[in-house]
Design a protein that fits this description.
Shape: globular
Strand order of the largest sheet: 1-10-2-6-5
Order of helices and strands: EEHHEEEEEHHHEEE
CATH superfamily: 4'-phosphopantetheinyl transferase domain
Strand content: 25-35%
Largest sheet: 5 strands, mixed
Helix content: 25-40%
Number of domains: 1
Distance between the termini: 33 Å
Number of helices: 5
CATH architecture: Alpha-Beta Complex
CATH class: Alpha Beta
Structural class: alpha+beta
Length: 224
């Protein structure tokens, strides 16, 4: 299904939702500005979180890692019905996964610059990718190397502004879909179809959300 022409149900919320996902067709998408993450949330980090952060050489990247992990715990805890400090994560080749508690809750996250997006759903795979759009990239070269030849050909015939936008749409769509496919293979479900939605989460950014299956209802929340 073409994400740029499909219709979907979306609700924007500035307040805390009822954290209930009782049907596979529901997806919550969280929009987080990392510079608004309070230091107090670090009390919920686990020893494993801190060990992982300690392996990161750059102080800036280490701070971003800790903020992302803090927010992820804050977002997921109410869905799981457990304290934020009691869940554990595992890093798989397909991405970050919930190790405990056991749950059919599925999530995926992506961040670029100051923006973090977290997609949460139930009993189906989900992928998210967000990129800050840089106008100085060699779009034609990237398209020739990474895109389908037909998409690369179309890209070459666009003007510069449309070329950048189209390139990032294709890139984020491909990355979000790849995450769903890889997660499905890893879990043994072998999903053969997913819906992809391209959207602009903030000025200067491009993003895509991919969800296993044929349709979904999207609720969009701003983390405060």
């Amino acid at each position: 299904m073409d994400s740029r022409s499909r219709r979907f149900s979306a609700v924007m919320s500035e307040c805390q939702p009822r954290r209930r996902l009782n049907t596979p067709g529901k997806v919550d998408l969280w929009h987080i500005e990392l510079d608004r993450v309070p230091l107090g949330l670090q009390q919920h980090l686990s020893a494993l979180d801190l060990r992982e952060a300690g392996r990161i050489g750059s102080a800036r990247e280490r701070e971003t890692f800790l903020k992302v992990r803090c927010v992820l715990r804050s977002v997921l805890a109410p869905y799981l019905g457990c304290p934020a400090g009691e869940m554990e994560f595992e890093q798989h080749p397909t991405g970050l996964c919930l190790a405990s508690p056991a749950s059919l809750l599925r999530f995926n996250l992506s961040h670029s610059e100051n923006l973090l997006l977290v997609a949460v759903t139930f009993a189906r795979q989900v992928g998210i990718d967000v990129e800050f759009m840089r106008p100085d990239l060699p779009f034609d070269t990237l398209a020739d190397y990474y895109f389908d030849p037909r998409d690369a050909y179309r890209l070459r015939h666009l003007d510069n502004s449309d070329r950048m936008r189209h390139c990032y749409q294709e890139w984020t769509s491909s990355e979000a879909s790849r995450r769903v496919v890889n997660q499905s293979r890893n879990s043994g479900t072998g999903a053969n179809r997913c819906c992809v939605l391209n959207f602009t989460p903030a000025k200067g950014f491009s993003a895509a959300l991919a969800v296993e299956g044929e349709d979904f209802q999207l609720d969009w929340h701003r983390w405060l």
